[in-house]
Amino acid sequence: MVVLSPHSDDAPLSVGGTIPRLGANHKVIVYIIFGLSRFTRFRRFRNRVAVTAYRWTEERMSSLVLGYQVRYFAFPDSSARAADRNGPSNHLPGVRETLLSHLANDRPETILCPLGVGNHPDHVTLARTIVDLMLAGVVKTSTCRFYEDLPYSTFYDTTPSVKSIEKALSMKMGPVLIDVTKTIASKISALKIYKSQLRSSNISRVEDYARTLAEEETKGSPHYHEREWVIAS
């Protein structure tokens, strides 16, 4: 399985319970597309080289907790593009060709993609790129599942993002709940690693969201779910 992650921390935030559920028998590779960054909670440094190196270290530590491989790409994220005075569209051709090359080499049975909830330009760029590849027939719709971008999904309705993709593909999508009750502790442990990006309140919102999703389906002792959107066959 390949998880398309706009930045370091996006995969653990959104599918950090799903990844360890697969166990040691399934290889999971996380593609971090926009790997160059200037964004950090720490005000003491904003240097792109320093921030990128710090975030890379956090990602490697998280990957050891959740059990995935990391593929880090050198596209600048929105914070770095703003500093370079480049718009996001300048990087679309490179993102597309990079994805094509690595997906052809890895040949994953499943690709997890962001929905683009919250309209973060990097998340939307990645969602649109994978949709374009499906429309071009080079990525099969049957292999793609869309995850809810967290923590954005705790603030924004997912419906507009789902509708946008459905309209682009002329296909319907349906929600699938993934029970991550047994792996939620590992997910929270991984999220605590990202001290440069996440406050404790962010992590709490993600945990509460997983509990809320589960409450819609289960009763009794606390359960936790993550939600993906699957294209109808």
Question: What does this protein look like?
Answer:
With 233 residues, the chain is of the alpha/beta class. Helix content is 43%, strand content 15%. It has helices at 10-15, 18-21, 48-66, 78-84, 92-106, 121-135, 159-169, 184-191, 200-215; strands at residues 2-5, 29-32, 69-72, 111-114, 144-147, 173-179, 225-231. Helix 3 (48-66) runs antiparallel to helix 8 (184-191) and helix 5 (92-106) crosses helix 6.
Indicate how many domains the architecture comprises. Answer: 1
Q: Order of strands across the widest beta sheet?
A: 3-2-1-4-5-7-6
Instruction: Report the order of strands and helices.
Output: EHHEHEHHEHEHEHHE
End-to-end separation in angstroms reads: 20 Å
General shape: globular
CATH homologous superfamily heading: LmbE-like
List the defining traits of the structure above:
233 residues, alpha/beta, Rossmann fold, seven-stranded mixed β-sheet, 9 helices
Topology record:
Elements: E1 2-5, H1 10-15, H2 18-21, E2 29-32, H3 48-66, E3 69-72, H4 78-84, H5 92-106, E4 111-114, H6 121-135, E5 144-147, H7 159-169, E6 173-179, H8 184-191, H9 200-215, E7 225-231
Parallel strand pairs: 1-2, 1-4, 2-3, 4-5
Antiparallel strand pairs: 5-7, 6-7
Question: Short summary of the structure?
Answer:
The protein is 43% helix and 15% strand.
